[in-house]
Amino acid sequence: MAAEPLLRRINPKSPTHITTSASSPSLPRPSSSSAFGPRRPGFSFSPLTHKKRSTTGPRSWIRIDAVTGASSIIEADKISIMRRCDLPARDLRLLDPLFVYPSTILGREKAIVVNLEQIRCIITADELLLLNSLDSCVLQYTVELQRRMSAAAEAEAMGEATDQLPFEFRALELALEVACSFLDSQSAELEIEAYPLLDELTSKISTLNLERVRRLKSRLVALTRRVQKVREEIEHLMDDDGDMAEMYLTEKRQHMLEMSFMGDHPVLAFNSSALGTGISVSAPVSPASSPPDSHRLEKTLSIARSRQDSSVRSSENAIEHIQELEMMLEAYFVMIDSSLNKLTSLKEYIDDTEDFINIQLDNVRNQLIQFELLLTTATFVVAIFGVIAGIFGMNFEIPFFQQTGAFQWVLSISGLGGFSIFCFFLWFLKCRRLMPL
Fold first, then answer.
1. pTM of the model
2. How do residues 129-187 score in pLDDT, each as one tens digit?
3. How many CB atoms lie within 10 A of CB 22?
4. CB of 145 closer than 8 Å to CB of 174
5. What ranges make up the beta strands (E) of 95-166?
6. 435 vs 263, 329, 371, 419, CA distance in Å?
7. Is 157 helix (H, G, I), strand (E, B) or coil?
8. Which H/E stretch holds residue 48?
9. Cross-strand pairs, 112
10. 264, 262, 299: which is closest to 281 by C-alpha?
């Protein structure tokens, strides 16, 4: 009965029935207004809204098994993925499609976090979790990985000797291949679109062509930044052996299993060390010659030797696999470097085109300045005629006005003087190299 008022308090729309007895005094109902003014409505707390704000909700992931290659769709939230792959929250933030992060490859203790363009996945030794998306690259990645795993399983079943990389390396290699191929195709498309447009701009400078080149250059800058980030990430992995060793998850898992098995069964480690040294384990031993302390010491030494041997073997295997991973990364480094060289050449061509257009505009501007200088000189010569006309237009009488042919003499002398002044200005500009004539 105590829970009923609580539920009614949470859901105020549910009808309530209050019964009052004759002995209980009736309480006055609070009015909607008081001496301090009308009452404000209280804050309504919604548990559903609080839940939506506190959690992001489950996301769809494509799971690919490392052994069978079977794919399935799972729904898991952020906390479940963190516990499943032993990853911190900041690593999963790189895979969130709501955030825009550059391409990143992180090697962790039990997983590899890959964020390469549209490929956002978590690779472990047992499975691959790929963020589900409608992008064609995600579908291509899933189908190609299953095809390669099935081909490797068929070759292994037929007994063919194939040098297969671990599952995490194969998944990482395919992610690099898809990302590099996608960036290379975008670079090729941009290159095909750019060169005719730039050639058209050099032949005809217009506002429309300039706007198209501006959009093309902005796309080029964005694509160059993405390609350079992938290149830097691959180069960083190639230069750091520790990061490459962290990515070999299969070897680390086998090493941990061996260590745990040796820790749980020290007698087996002692037997293996005794067989390796030629000591008979089943032979009777005199109690006087082998006290209990000597047995414990021998067991401890055998366990230490077995662990040292396993560590040496694992280090040798790690070096071999580091070299394999480095060769694989080097191949895709060459591929992405080729795409970057294409974009760099295209950017240089755009810069050369801009310089050529600026030179053309400067030439046109210089021609306009020269033409303006000629017009200014001609205007000065015509102004001389205006001065002479103003002088003779004054209201006074001189004998020169009464002579016949005076107008022709004034006009001829004025024209000859103006032409001489104009030629003098042209000669002066030519001497000063202000105008090529």
1. 0.67
2. 999 888 888 999 999 999 998 888 888 777 765 667 888 899 999 999 999 999 999 99
3. 5
4. yes
5. 104-107, 112-116, 119-123, 127-131
6. 95, 61, 9, 18
7. helix
8. helix 47-54
9. 107, 123
10. 299
